[in-house]
Amino acid sequence: MQFWRKPLDADKIKVPHGEIHIVRDRCKGCGFCVEYCPKDVLVLSEEFNTKGYHPPEAVKADDCVHCQLCEMLCPEFAIFVTLKDEESVEA
Amino acid sequence: MQFWRKPLDADKIKVPHGEIHIVRDRCKGCGFCVEYCPKDVLVLSEEFNTKGYHPPEAVKADDCVHCQLCEMLCPEFAIFVTLKDEESVEA
Amino acid sequence: MSRTEIRVTGYGGQGVILCGYLIGKSAAIHGGMHATLNQSFGPEARGSACSAQVIVSDEKILYPYMRKPDVMIAMSREAYNKFAPELGGKGIMLVDEDLVKEAKAEKNMKLYKIPATRIAEDLGRRIVLNIVMLGFFTAITKLIDHDAVRKTVETSVPKGTEQLNLKAFDSGYEFGIKQLESESKPKKKSTKKKKEVAA
Amino acid sequence: MSRTEIRVTGYGGQGVILCGYLIGKSAAIHGGMHATLNQSFGPEARGSACSAQVIVSDEKILYPYMRKPDVMIAMSREAYNKFAPELGGKGIMLVDEDLVKEAKAEKNMKLYKIPATRIAEDLGRRIVLNIVMLGFFTAITKLIDHDAVRKTVETSVPKGTEQLNLKAFDSGYEFGIKQLESESKPKKKSTKKKKEVAA
Amino acid sequence: MKTDPKGVLTGEHYLDGDHACAEGALAAGCRFFAGYPITPSTEVAERFCSRIPLVGGIFIQMEDELGSMAAVVGASWSGKKSMTVTSGPGFSLMMENIGLAAMMETPCVVVNVQRGGPSTGLPTMVGQADMMQARWGSHGDYEIIALSPASPQESFDYTIFAFNFAEKYRVPVMVMMDECVGHMTEKVVIPPAGKIDVAYRTMTTLSPDKYLPYVPEKNLVPDMMPVGEGYNIHSTGLTHDERGYPVMSPDAQDKIVNRLVDKINKNADDIIMIEEEDTEDADIIVMAYGITSRVTMPAIFEARKKGLKVGFIKLITVWPFPEKRIKQLAKTAKAFVMPEINLGQVVLELERIVAGKTKVYHVPHAGGWVHDPADIYKAIEEAANGNKK
Amino acid sequence: MKTDPKGVLTGEHYLDGDHACAEGALAAGCRFFAGYPITPSTEVAERFCSRIPLVGGIFIQMEDELGSMAAVVGASWSGKKSMTVTSGPGFSLMMENIGLAAMMETPCVVVNVQRGGPSTGLPTMVGQADMMQARWGSHGDYEIIALSPASPQESFDYTIFAFNFAEKYRVPVMVMMDECVGHMTEKVVIPPAGKIDVAYRTMTTLSPDKYLPYVPEKNLVPDMMPVGEGYNIHSTGLTHDERGYPVMSPDAQDKIVNRLVDKINKNADDIIMIEEEDTEDADIIVMAYGITSRVTMPAIFEARKKGLKVGFIKLITVWPFPEKRIKQLAKTAKAFVMPEINLGQVVLELERIVAGKTKVYHVPHAGGWVHDPADIYKAIEEAANGNKK
Amino acid sequence: MATKNNNVPEHPMERLLRMDRIPHIWCPTCGIGTAVSCFISAIDKFKHPHEKIAVVSGIGCTGRVAGYIKLDSFHTTHGRAIPFATGLKLANPDLKVVVFSGDGDLISIGGNHFIHAARRNTDITVVCVNNFIYAMTGGQCAPTTPLTANSSTTPYGNHERPFNLPLLASSCGAVYVARWTSLHIRRLTNSMHEALNKPGFSFVEVVAPCSTLYARRNRLGTGLDLLKFYHDSSEICHGADPTELDIAFQDKIKVGKFIDRERPTFIDAWNDNMKKKFGDKFDPYGEKKAKKAA
Amino acid sequence: MATKNNNVPEHPMERLLRMDRIPHIWCPTCGIGTAVSCFISAIDKFKHPHEKIAVVSGIGCTGRVAGYIKLDSFHTTHGRAIPFATGLKLANPDLKVVVFSGDGDLISIGGNHFIHAARRNTDITVVCVNNFIYAMTGGQCAPTTPLTANSSTTPYGNHERPFNLPLLASSCGAVYVARWTSLHIRRLTNSMHEALNKPGFSFVEVVAPCSTLYARRNRLGTGLDLLKFYHDSSEICHGADPTELDIAFQDKIKVGKFIDRERPTFIDAWNDNMKKKFGDKFDPYGEKKAKKAA
Ligand SMILES: Cc1ncc(C[n+]2csc(CCOP(=O)(O)OP(=O)(O)O)c2C)c(N)n1
Ligand SMILES: Cc1ncc(C[n+]2csc(CCOP(=O)(O)OP(=O)(O)O)c2C)c(N)n1
Ligand code: SF4
Ligand code: SF4
Ligand code: SF4
Ligand code: SF4
Ligand code: SF4
Ligand code: SF4
Ligand SMILES: [Mg+2]
Ligand SMILES: [Mg+2]
Which of C183, D117, F288, G140 could form an S-S bond across to E37 if both were Cys, CB 3.0 to 4.6 Å? Predict the structure, then answer.
């Protein structure tokens, strides 16, 4: 069952790009965002945040399709994505 | 729908005869027994009992088939039927 | 006037409580007196004799329950049998003469009979028996001003039934007045100032 | 001996409470002393530093809570940061040297470090870190008789894990003894009669 | 303030205590009722539900008393004056959420038409044995207000008082009626709406960004705010700070619990209503509440006839107890006599307050009936003779 | 009688108060537990349910506290010693069926591990503010027994006492623990089964046709009978006669309610357990219960060091209150000092009993923590100086 | 007290009735008495030692049933008959425990216990007299009162949809579910008997007249009129889909046995579980005792 | 308090969160936070003035939700969120009232209110985080704990059959019933949004990880492992028969929207009824006020 990797509406719309924002010190390193990012944009960083967790970092930030899965899944309100240069989309 | 007038098992078994006992002063004259006796054995009497109700009396006592409907329906435990001379049954 | 205690009793459905209520209300609202009504509640009361107790007084009523009735209205045999002994042979007993055949006067107890059910039936509605009784009570006891009671009946019964109920009240009242007239003089035990004023 | 207060702290899953429990139990059951253990409960404690407080005394313990720890065992950085100030620069601090790198001694506070996690990992189960710490604590503080603590470990851990846990205890204990030997003389603030007996 | 005339059935009525209570609630502006039937209180609900559709409000019969009380608290937060009505067994079930009401500081009225207890007891007969429960029935420290009417007229009047206190002090107020009053029918005069004073909770004048829901204002009572207007408040049954946020600390606890208690106790002079009669030079003071305050009078008259100097105190407010006044009177009176339809409840507080300064004679009654005034008279006589153990 | 050894974990253990309570229950022969989780009491249930399968008994986690309490009453009638455990909010919910237990005269034990209240309050922190609720929380007049342990060892011991009193007096017995004791781990010595005295309800020796379930026997307590053996008894929460049949009359009410109260009060000497220390010639007597009785000691030592003659009373039994003994001591002592983790509950009873004969100093604490002994010391000092309002 | 005519033998049900409490409190033409008759007949047939049967009621007119049946019987608090019965049963598994109570008691205030006992498959039989009303307190709306029907708290007609009790019971896991009216005396008796014999949570709904309150307020005549109505409007639908069993005001009443299935009871599940866990160290709860008794 | 990196814009959900209470108390990898994210997104879409939305919770880990959402919000007593919400809604019909709480709170101690609110079709939306456990109190068995699963009060495995929550809700009359896991963020958000828009009693079950207690005690790994498990084992079955929605331990989880139907709400039914009775004398409750506001 793959439907969660590819959100239902992912291929219907023109693929936009997202800018990823991580509130590092709010993160508890659960890994939800990393695991379910359909574009494998994120990995958990090596460093600790002030709470002692490893927050994610965007290693393939340009691949972000602004699907907001990370934002919605995050139980800590620690990551969100804004829409970046919507002109350049059209994938 | 007639099934209650004739208890389901009424015609399967050989019809016995019943002897009707009425605890007159316990009766509250609801009329259940009178209404649902399949053989119309009972009527409410004219007289009052000590509580001021009209208890039933058996006007066709010989027709009683010992179905015990009256006994079961009576909410006052005021009427019951015992089996009488089972030999004479065979209806 | 000091305290008068009244028991109204009969079986469920006869309007016993309403009768008591109207006595109390007449006294309290239109009669310028104090009146406290109590009823018997409870599972043990289911289906048996029901009763209302009214205490009427021109002073504030403190003790809220009946201690010994001065007046009793009995509308059923069972109720009569159960409650009549309370009078202890004193006071006034009002009965429906057809329903309470065994009623009889005693030494200090005055008995008044009325064929209230029959009167009610003649009026077309057996259900107004309680109002007939109320009229009878008003006439016999003179405890509460006739006009006060009549007005209470008029303003308390369901809309559209006023005429019927007033007729019932009047019939009972007149029956009572006649009965009193046919007596030499009313010699009720608890004759009090107020009653004489009303008389 | 008067009262000694010990705080054991770290993060959830490190066996912090068990470590405190074993200290208390050793003192109370096999050490012939009184020992009261308390833990922090509550939703606010979810997922953050957890801690146990043990009070050990050879008199009956009346006031049940810690007032100011004499000894602290810190097994995580967060816990150290949160609780170390409680010592107020006095007493004994025992830390896992890898997990609490920033720990440093102060004027009257003596710091003892042990690579407890590493020792536990060397024994094959990181989870016995708390027992290593317990051994270390036993050696350094001499608060409770070595045999009492060892016996407590032996009889309290799940069946089948006794050897592993005793090894962990012994490793921690030996590490502590060596560290003490390498010092000129133990100069803990709260040296008390009982401890001297035990020494 | 004057009341909304829609609920006011001005005129002279012949009502029982339960019906009068419902009329009192409507006159006080109560527009939400959640309840569960129980003898001898059900008539309050019945009258309320038959009257409310045309008055503009709503009635819900809940699945139980737990739900009734919780719904009342919720409804009050929505801005409606709210009430529930019950008797002993239901009162017991309401205790947890009465505590919530106290902790969230929710104006609401709980009527308990007391019957004989404990347990199912005597469902249709009178008792006054839930008086201590009214004060202590929920866990933890808190204070409530309890009033006790002695007639249908007082049932009407005190129910209005109850709503007024509830609104003024943001506290659950108990109307501790008894079956005798609840089921007794007497004349009740309902004044014109313009003659009925009612209180409303003080609403904050601060804007949402300035307002904090638990900052004590006048009388130690925080102002309220309208739900649904963007104040985004939070309220909790946990120990909380002035923002209404949970704070798990002894300090926060100390602050909130003491204020909950102080807002009643420090305003006791405003809340306590008693009727006194000939107390100043009395040797013996009889104290009573509810129906017992009436039954007591014949005994007092009798005693006075015999030349005894008997004063009388009727508690309108039972909780808080009129401590200050009793302390004064304890200096002059020789004895207090207190009949209650229980085995000794409010009298314990009386005993505590007089602190041995005068004697206290309790006249207990297990319930099911009111006292025989003769028993009260006997106690007065005993008190006069001073023969207590 | 001696206890059934199956439940007895003889030996020295290092247990918290909650676990010790469960062990006490098992040692006392409790074989039925119905409960609903609530902090800080849940560990009692957890230990019970993990121990019971091999001891021979049963555990059920009910859907709520109402059900828990009702199930405990039912189970006790089936002949098993039964208990439930809760904290404030759940205790409030149990009140109605605690009343049923009292009315049906059902032996059972209710443990309340008190936390900070009111309402949800401070779920994980200590309080002692349900003490009055234990006595007055259900409607109507009745009496219960309440004990209060100050350590895990006492939690074990008193739980056994609780079952013994429950069985002897056919009454719900409350173990009024507090969070501090519940969550504190200390040494607990569990004696061999042969050394543990336990009581069992007295079973009738009469045959079913002679036996009536509510005829008072020894100590005013009726004998019980086994359910399921043809006694065909009836028991009800309604006012009832000796047959257990409902009787709706003030006389029946008078009889039953007075006996329910008398069977506790008239046997108070047997039920009341207190510990006294240096009270005979004390000027000041400190009274405390539960954890507060420990916290109080350092203050007393301090005061004695300063030369004050301070006595100490620890209440093991809080309800019924040791009225008789306090009355005696009130004659000789100059003052009582009573710290409690509440704003003044049991101290009200103390005040009432001393009736002005000596002064009473309350040392309140709103909860969340135990007293600072210094505050208690201050009160002792004040008492010594006699400077009360 | 009952006055008997001379030389009338004892009513056969008297053996199971507390005759010293007869006459009962129920009104003339009330249906509760009939339900009790059927219950007594079912008990009579039931092959469980009678002294090992206990009856538990809550509060209500129906709640008075426990007080009239000569078995160990308990009249508890409103809504708590089921948890009380749960304690009774679990603490003495030899007992057969029957809860006999009203619709308000069991389904309104007692609703939570009802659904959870069904879920756990607590081994009790629940008989619910559904008279569509809270009778004891004077006729308030119940969670069974049909839409539009009158009651003292719905003086303008009921606007709350009632529960379909067989559906509720079956959704929560009851193993036996039947509904009859008090006119269906034989079938009702049979169902009660089957329920008694069924291990686990069995539920029998008895639609019965409350003549004094429900019938009078809705102008439906006497209890006898209601029986006649049941006669005309009930339809036997054994095995019907429980979702189809709603009852509308004076409309068709579907009756029958709807559910009869197997699930381990609470105690069986406990024993199976512990047996798996502890093997022979574990003495199955309740069983030994039964053996001892045997 | 949240420490923010510089020049990061505000998280879009912060507008609806009480940021002065963040970080929240939930454990790492707990699923409640995700459910809240979805709820905030649903509220964001919801075309009802935000100030007219109120959130009510009971007690539990999930019960803390009300404390974090920046709307009028109430943290009530254990089990009583629904009746509290009922009062809130009925007393101010302009409000949209959402109950957000845990499985124990809503279905165990609160079960009676749940079934009756569904029956009455009280106009509230109920979101239930089902983590199969009583988390706040340390991991006791819930009425949702799957058979055989471990908890602190079923240390030898659970022997009580759990409720199927969609079945319970639907049998009692809920007009909207859906279940998703906390992994189904979009569908969950949609369902929450649909529920908010649905007049009447709507119910959304959110299966979510309790990592600290349920997962740890049952050796299921972290919350992330549970999400992976949900990924592999959940099956979308829109419109499935509610009787088929049981959840067995670590077995398939059927998710989807199961019920979406029309029934008059409590207030609508009240108004219709009174209108019929009183005609123009009756001012429909709640409506006038709405008009005034408009
Ligand atoms: C806690 C509590 N709340 C309310 C009551 C009042 N009460 C007694 S019986 C009853 C309803 C009975 O209805 P039902 O169960 O349908 O029985 P019925 O009388 O109709 O047979 C109520 C509300 C009570 N006794 N206890
Ligand atoms: C009356 C009452 N009983 C018990 C409790 C204790 N309690 C608090 S939360 C809770 C269970 C919570 O479980 P759930 O609703 O599933 O929420 P979760 O923590 O799992 O999110 C319990 C039993 C309480 N607070 N009040
Ligand atoms: S929005 Fe988040 S989940 Fe989606 S592609 Fe971008 S980083 Fe990945
Ligand atoms: S989902 Fe949130 S908490 Fe989890 S790792 Fe990503 S940013 Fe951190
Ligand atoms: S047993 Fe009764 S019902 Fe049957 S025939 Fe005889 S009298 Fe009629
Ligand atoms: S059924 Fe019973 S109560 Fe009714 S009339 Fe016949 S004998 Fe009398
Ligand atoms: S009130 Fe109704 S249910 Fe109760 S006894 Fe009378 S008829 Fe039967
Ligand atoms: S205990 Fe479980 S439900 Fe509670 S916050 Fe932690 S993970 Fe979440
Ligand atoms: Mg009913
Ligand atoms: Mg949960």
Answer: G140
Dihedral of CA atoms F342, F347, F348, F350 in degrees, nearest 10, equals 170
CB-based burial, H60-78: b 16+ in 10 Å, e otherwise: bbbbbbbbbbbbbbbbbbb
The size of the F-G interface in CB pairs under 8 A is 155
Asked if the peptide bond before residue H49 counts as cis, ω within 30 degrees of 0, the response is: no
Looking at the domain assignment, is residue B4 inside a domain? no
State the pLDDT at residue F388. Answer: 61
Q: Looking at the complex, does the CB of residue G141 fall below 8 Å from at least one CB of chain E?
A: yes
Q: Assess contact for G114 and G87: CB atoms under 8 A.
A: no
pLDDT at E386: 84
Is residue H78 assigned to a domain? yes
**How confident is the model over F37-70, as pLDDT tens digits?**
999 999 999 999 999 999 999 999 999 999 999 9
> How far apart are the C-alpha atoms of F60 and F41, rounded to whole Å?
15
Q: Which ligand is nearest to the CA of G58?
A: 1
Fold that domain F11-195 belongs to in CATH:
Rossmann fold (3.40.50)
C34-39 and E122-126 strand pairing: unpaired
Mean pLDDT value across residues C29-56: 82
> Which residues of chain A are within 8 Å of residue H236 when distances are taken between CB atoms?
3
Kindly report, residue by residue over D104-113, the tens digit of the pLDDT: 888 889 999 9
Rounded to 5 degrees, φ, ψ at E2 are -95, 160
Chain A residues within 8 angstroms (CB to CB) of chain H: 1, 3-4, 7-8, 21-26, 28-32, 35-36, 50, 53, 69, 71-78, 80, 82
User: How many angstroms separate the Cα of H48 from the Cα of each of F352, H193, H196, H197?
Assistant: 58, 11, 9, 9
Q: Tell me if chain H has a CB within 8 Å of the CB of G109.
A: yes
Total count of domains within chain A: 1
Whether H128 is covered by a domain: the verdict is: yes
Q: Which of C11, C41, C46 is the mutation pick for testing G, counting most G CBs within 10 A? A: C46
Q: What is the β-pairing status of strands A42-44 and A56-58?
A: antiparallel
Kindly report the protein residue whose alpha carbon is nearest to atom 4 of ligand 3. Answer: A67
CATH number of the CATH domain containing B65: 3.30.70.3270
Residue predicted with more confidence, G291 or E25: E25
* CATH for F276-385, options being 1.10.3720.10, 3.40.50.300, 3.30.450.280, 3.40.50.920: 3.40.50.920
The pairing of beta strand C71-74 with beta strand C4-11: parallel
CATH number for D3-184: choose from 2.40.50.1070, 3.40.1550.10, 3.40.920.10, 1.10.3720.10.
Answer: 3.40.920.10
Distance of alpha carbon E312 from its chain centroid, rounded? 20
Asked, for residue G7, whether it belongs to a domain, the answer is no
G130 lines ligand 7 (CB under 6 A): no
Structural domain harbouring G63: 14-263
Q: What is the pLDDT of residues G40-56, one digit of tens each?
A: 999 999 999 999 999 99
Q: Which one of the ligands is nearest to A49 CA?
A: 4
- What's the G165 CA to ligand 9 centre distance in angstroms? 13
Q: Is residue B9 part of a domain?
A: no
- A34 CB less than 6 Å from ligand 3? no
Is there a contact between F46 and H137 if contact means CB atoms under 8 Å apart? no
Residues in G closer than 8 angstroms to C78, CB to CB, are: none
Please state, rounded to an integer, the average pLDDT across all residues of chain E. 97
Cα atoms found within 13 Å of the Cα of residue G270, Cβ hemisphere only: 26
The predicted pLDDT at position G288 comes to 59
* Within-domain flag for B79: yes
The percentage of residues in chain F with a pLDDT greater than 70, rounded to a whole number, is: 99
Q: Is H30 part of the contact surface with chain A (CB cutoff 8 Å)?
A: yes
Report if residue B11 sits inside a domain.
no
Cβ-Cβ contacts under 8 Å, E42 against chain G: 137-138, 140, 152
Q: Which residues line ligand 2 (CB under 6 A)?
A: F 36-38, 65, 89-90, 93, 120; H 59-62, 78, 101-105, 129, 131, 133-137, 142
